[in-house]
Amino acid sequence: MPGIFSLHTLFPLVYQSCAKGGMITEEGMRSVLALLLEETPTHPHVDFRGPLRLDFWSKEHGPMIAISTDMKAISELHNQIVRKIQLARGARPFPA
Predict the structure, then answer these.
(1) Residue ranges per domain, the chain?
(2) pLDDT of the residue at 5
(3) Which of 13, 20, 1 lies closest to 85, judged by CA?
(4) pTM attached to this predicted model
(5) pLDDT digits (tens, 9 = 90+) for 17-60
């Protein structure tokens, strides 16, 4: 479950972003995570340029980075997700 692990490691950044914005609420966290559904055509990793929908996480249809279970790949998945959020926010630092 690389997606679960990478999103679990993303939580402190999501929480910190919400805290900085004064919105430590379900809605605040949802708004940060909704950035994963944005198009990010300038993302350096092609698999992260489109929205990260259910098929992204699918063993049948998802990219290798989303289904690989080794820790190096999971760490890279986390880094690419963080980068996607940064790009979707208009390159503002994450958290901010």
Answers:
(1) 2-88
(2) 84
(3) 13
(4) 0.85
(5) 899 888 899 999 999 999 999 999 999 999 999 999 999 998 89
CA–CA separation, 25 and 33 (whole Å)? 12
Rounded to 5 degrees, φ, ψ at 23 are -130, 65
Distance CA 58, CA 76 (A): 18
Asked if residue 81 lies in contact with residue 37, where contact means CB atoms within 8 angstroms, the answer is no
Neighbours of 61 (CB within 10 A): 12
Token output for 54:
């259910």
For residue 25, how many other CB atoms are within 10 A of its CB? 10
What pLDDT digit, counting tens, does each position of 63-86 carry? 999 888 888 988 999 999 999 999
Contact 80, 48 (CB under 8 A): yes
